[in-house]
Design brief:
The protein is mainly alpha-helical. The chain is 86% helix and 0% strand. The chain has six helices and no strands.
């Protein structure tokens, strides 16, 4: 059971990074249907991350792992609240956008940290997808 929880966590982290990467590219290209699909996938990751959190709490995992999950779930909840429930243009409001970015990166680094804790090789794969995400963000923000 413990191994299954680790696999679900790592797969969820990979899906998250790939979905955010695709979302950045789709946004840049104006493909709003793809943006909506990627956003839905990202929000749906609340389910597997909640399951893995409960599994890690149940097996009395390190506090660092539990806190990392809290950051991830807090980010996903914040995304759901701001983008899907309140539907406010928070990315244009600096006082909201800056804390949102901080929580986003806390979630990303939490995924990397827990992945490395579970398996160093797979943690490296999560880092590669994180670097792809960063490349897609640079492309999204570039004026090209």
């Amino acid at each position: 059971m413990n191994r299954l929880i680790d696999v679900v966590f790592i797969c969820s982290s990979l899906v998250f990074n790939i979905s955010v990467s695709a979302l950045y590219i789709a946004t840049k290209l104006g493909e709003m249907v793809i943006v909506q699909v990627c956003g839905g996938i990202i929000i749906s990751l609340m389910v597997p991350f909640t399951i893995t959190l409960l599994g890690y709490v149940r097996k009395k995992a390190k506090k660092r792992t539990i806190i990392s999950h809290a950051f991830i779930l807090f980010y996903l909840f914040l995304e759901l609240l701001l983008d899907y429930i309140l539907k406010i243009p928070f990315r244009e409001i600096l006082a909201i956008h800056v804390p949102y970015i901080i929580v986003f990166y806390a979630a990303l680094f939490s995924m990397i940290g827990v992945s490395f804790e579970k398996n160093k090789k797979i943690g490296s794969v999560v880092i590669v997808t994180f670097l792809i995400l960063m490349g897609c963000l640079i492309y999204y923000l570039s004026p090209i």
